[in-house]
Every structure is written in C-alpha cells, then in structure tokens.
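User: Quick sanity check before I run a bigger batch. Here is a single chain. Can you write out its predicted 3D structure?
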Amino acid sequence: MRIPWRVSVCSVVITSACLHACSSAPSGSKSAQPPAGLARALLASVTWTDGTPANELNDRDTRTGATISQGAVLNIELPHSRDVRVVKVHATGNAVARVVLQDSQGGVVEELEPAPLGEGAWSRVGLVERENRTASLRLELDPGSAGATVTEVDVFVVGTPVTWINQERLPGAIQEGDPTALVVRADPDHAELVPGGSGDQDDAPATCATLNFTVPVNPRSLQRVVLTYEARGLAGPFSLVRSINGLGRAGGLVLPATSDTLPYSERIPPELLVAGANALELCGPPVGTYRVRIQSARIVLEGERSPVAEPGEDSAGDPLGDGDEMTGQALDGGGSVLTYLLTRPTSLDGVLVRHDGVLDVERIRLSLDGVKAAVVHRLPLAGGDALILSPHIAQRTVQLDFGAQGGRVSDVFVLGSGLSTPTPP
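Assistant: Done. Predicted structure follows.
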C-alpha cells in the first residue's frame, strides 16, 4: 500500500549536479568514472509497476513521498540511454533497496547488490563501474516489517556537470542527449503577429498565435525553463503578451521596436507547465509599427545542476562554472580566495577544481561556513582537474583559499548530494 504524504520538516534538504565516492581506489584496482564526468539526470518518468505515476519521488522536495508497507517496485525511465554510475534514494525507515539496470528492450544489463537505506538521509544504492547504456531502471524496495517512506530518487550518469549557463547561451550549450537538460521545439516554431494599432489609434486587438510543445519530464523536477526564439519587429521579449496554458499572462510593454531580426530569451516559471502537452500563446504588442515575425521557437528544460547560487540578473554568467576552459580567473599569487554562496544547506561530497596544471592541490585550503574543513583526500585528476573530497554539511558558504599560488582556474564545481525544496512561484 502506498500513501502519498506531505509534512513540514526542519531537516536539511540539499541539491546536486554530481557526486562520487569519497575515497580513491586501491592501487591496481579498476576505478569508477571520475566525478568530473557525472551529472544528475533528468528522469522521463517514475512510476509504480501498475503504471501509477510516482511524481512525488521526482519533485526536488524531500517533504513529499510515498509510504510503503510491503514490497514495491519503481520503474524509472531516462530520456536517452546513458551510462548510469550512481543511484541514490532518500527515505525513512529500515528499508532495503536493489537496482536493476535495463536496456532499451527491457533486457537486464546489470543487477546491483541490495543496499540498506538510511534513516531520514540519502543512501547510495549502487555504484556502477562499467559501461551499461541504461534506458530504464527497476528500483525494488523491501520496507521490512515496520514499513518505510521513500521521498526522492536520484540517478547520476556520465555527463559534463555545468553549474550555470547564461540563458542567452543556453540553447546552443545543450547538446543532443544532454542528461541534465532538454531542448524542445515548438509546433509550429514560427508565427507572424500584428500589433493592435499604430499608436494614433487602436484599430483592432493584436493578433495572437499558439505554439504547442511537449514536456516529457515532471515539471517539478526542473530548475529553470527558458523560452528562446528569433524575432523581427520587437523591442524585446517583454513587448509580446505571453501566457502558458492560459496562465501567467505577462508582457505588453510598449517601446520603440527594431526591424532587425535578433535572438531573444526569457524565463518561464516551471509551475506553469504540465507533463505532456502544453500551449504557449504569444500576442503582438498592443501598439507598434512593425509586424512581428517569430521563428525557431524552442523551450529549454533544465534540471537541477548544483547547489551554487546562480549569478545576479546583471551578470553575464559565472566564468568559473560555465564549463568553458577558455574562461576563468587568474590567481595573482597574493592569497586568492574564492567564495561560493549556496542556495540551500548542502551535504558536500567535494569540490572539483579545473586549472592549468600549475596549482599545487595540497596547498588549497577548504572552509565551510567560515570554518576550515577537514579534508579526506586531495585527488589530482587527468586534464588539469583536482578533486578535494570532504563529506561535511555546509549551510551557506564554500570557500577555497589558494594561498600564495599563481596560475589560472577555469572552473569550480561544488559537488553535493540531495535536493532542495522547490522555489516558490
């Protein structure tokens, strides 16, 4: 029996873009994929064996979940076949979980060893070391005699973790098969809109067009949704009147428009979306002198990437979290310190530093919330990467002190476990 539930709790809730084991493999043994290649995957669906959706286990909220009193099985579908590396489950009770990886035909790729789930905490159910091209997973749950409550499921796959991509760069940065984001084409992806009037008189209401698109994942699992398109005859995206599924009507600001064709992007609240078919209505400006031509309309669906706070509205994006080796920050050798603000308390797995190979990893000091943290291991990785492993909880800040070192840092990724409560609409 499964009982959906929701309660308020004061426990730490956390987020992740990637994670890894906090110790290196013994000499001569086969090691797992390095954390530089792990990313939290978007899940196409999470259902029980009878087909009932289990969206409460994939909503970025550990306050929701399902209580089970007998054995149960979850089916987890990925949007694309990927090499799965880690599966994590947040639960309460003394349940035992087992994961079965399956290919696109439903055949068994690998069966992982059963693992006990922690009490009110995140537990790693499996660590997979070989290539597997998994299309779906079976999560078998045994709650024992006392029953258990499962609140969230995470699947981490081989992929490039990116902390933040500026929304203007976002569509081109998402590659086909990206595990953390999807680009959906609107149908139709173009429209021609007529303003309501010239400004001297309003002859008629502005014309509108409906662009349809499909959301193949649970909208509550999304961190950011961006509408992008090219348009001629606009002053900006705020000139159009936009609504999603008849909700969230916004825009209509009258400003002088341009006859040039330019790219535009705007954020859409994920709360306006539904799983499956969605309708985007765009109406021309209430006043204007140009017909508006829209083309190449796309919707970018982005999952949770990391616990680091996104840049401010006026920022061009964080050069130390954009996944671009050509951007970064030079260290002046005078005691450079980098501080990252967390959007929520985070159960830290470590910090990945990408650099030019000049840095001495042993001299990098890690502090959490202003207090020097005990470091379990500093692990140099291939290609000028270093991983500082420290499994502690940070409430607000993660700080790296490079000391009197020169060199250049291209990216810093804070690696954590878990999910946050949803952002209020």
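The radius of gyration is 23 Å.

User: Great, the batch can go ahead then.
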